[in-house]
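To: structure subgroup
Subject: Chain for Friday's discussion

All,

I'm putting the inputs and outputs inline so they're searchable in the archive.
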Amino acid sequence: MSTAFYNEMYDSDAGLRPHYRAFAEWLAGTPAERLERKRAEADTAFHRVGITFAVYGEEAGTERLIPFDIIPRIIPAAEWAQLEAGLRQRVQALNAFLHDIYHEQAILKAGCVPAEQVLNNAQFRREMIGVDVPSGIYAHIAGVDIVRAGAGESYVLEDNLRVPSGVSYMIEDRKMMMRLFPELFSRHMIAPVQHYPDLLLDNLRTVAPKGVANPTVVLLTPGAYNSAYFEHTFLAQQMGIELVEGRDLFVRDETVFMRTTQGPQRVDVIYRRLDDDFLDPLVFNKDSMLGVPGLLSAYRAGHVTLANAIGTGVADDKSVYPYVPEMIRFYLGEEPQLNNVPTWMLRKPEDLRYVLAHLPELVVKEVHGAGGYGMLVGPAASRAEIEAFRARIIAAPEKYIAQPTLALSNCPTFVDSGIAPRHLDLRPFVLSGKRGVGMVPGGLTRVALRAGSLVVNSSQGGGTKDTWVLEN
């Protein structure tokens, strides 16, 4: 077993970490044939339920099953408590930053974040300047990607504040493990995650416009061809709210209504899974058939809440990410509890020179990129790929950031060749509402199923694991 990477289950002497002992004992006593049979059962069940994601760039309608691994990722209670505290701190600061840049812009005036990085950012929405959103919350749902590297230190890889996805897989993975291996849940005190939809709904209801006692909440989806459509239908069903498309809504007198068989019904909170550009064709992309004409006017008037708020994307842009530790110091007067990954910003001439000289060693990402696309993993790239990417960087250096290639932690994973280590990350889902910041224990663990791969995204061949946070 390689000692170059931190292993979640085994220490450097190949001894079991204490929080994995009960599971390892069970695993050692379980025949490989049973594990294989259970894995096949899981695949069949996920297909039957329709837990798939659409793949862009392939034939229209192509859908794939996200591979599910039956060996969980286990986190001890003390470690989770530290992570949770760091996540609360980080998301509080990000919300404060978003409120600030659309109002006083104090952090820009203080020179802590370069004004041009924000004001000239494609995700900065001038239409939101001066708009007061309920409780001052912009990112109601944040998916923060955490990785462990080196000797086991945790780092935030990126903040997802626009329309973070994956929570349905977290819930379905848990349901599947409980169904396949109920005996494991009597051996371990595992914190529950199934109440996430209830927590989310309660969170959304608390941020309804002023004076609305019993808010109507809907989930706005782009439709069945979106890659996360399964999640949209799943969450709407679990929360007991309507799943709507843009054509199901209309605006009258700066108020949003939903078309129903009983006539128009006012909508107070929209959990939107639609990017800013497509929300309102009167303001943003005029060709959008997915949004609701007049939605921004209703929003600016304070008659509807959008979760997440318009304009949150500027805070999860990869060129703004390096400044999050400074945001924590500026708004909260605290030192960051979670580390950022060291980052070179290629708009800076000295950073650009360094990165161009060290491309084979680094990971380079587009500042607006997502899903594992638009990036170069230097150590895994061919010379031709590196040189092609070099040309793209030189043509527009401001569009890229670079980071060291992290030695991501790995965890035993059940693959075709048997049980082998695979690299992984963790995406906890952090909810912000009137009553504060909360989350269910754990999150979505994504695992790179290709041997040696450091890219965990489902679009790039990654799978998922159930994430257990132990309660004792």
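Points worth raising on Friday:
Residues 46 and 65 are 7 Å apart (CA to CA).
The chain has a mean pLDDT of 91.

D.
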